[in-house]
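Extended Data, record Pilus assembly protein PilP
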Amino acid sequence: MNTKVLLIISLFSSSILMACQQKVESTSPENSSTAETNASTSATYKKEEKENNIEEANVKNILPYKGTIQYVDLEGGFFGITTDKGTKLLPMGLPKEYLQHGAIIEFSGEKDEDVMTIQQWGTPFKIKDIKLVKPGKPVNRGGKHELM
């Protein structure tokens, strides 16, 4: 009798140990709902993150810059702006009173990389606002395009 009890106990123990090793996946509605909520929350965060990145990109394009206007004697001559960080911008809509070589300006606007120009210099830039910090020299655009 003692052997039968030991055999039953060992079979019972073995089956319990085998059951503990199996991975159980519950398909209860509660777990399904939690997974859907987590997926929805993740999608919401990704959407908000993307919107924030777009807003940051727009803000970066509109923030004020500081730079120097220069006359570039290429492709018939044109005015460009070199920012304090060394970025070359090709201004679209630069008012005539700012056509001064060496003028230092503060300006805002946005890059327009969809525009094609004949100038092989800088990124096209639509000026929204501009302020003269230090005047430059006027340029004689007739003849040799020399500085006055």
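Summary. The domain at 65-137 is CATH 2.40.50.500 (OB fold (Dihydrolipoamide Acetyltransferase, E2P)).
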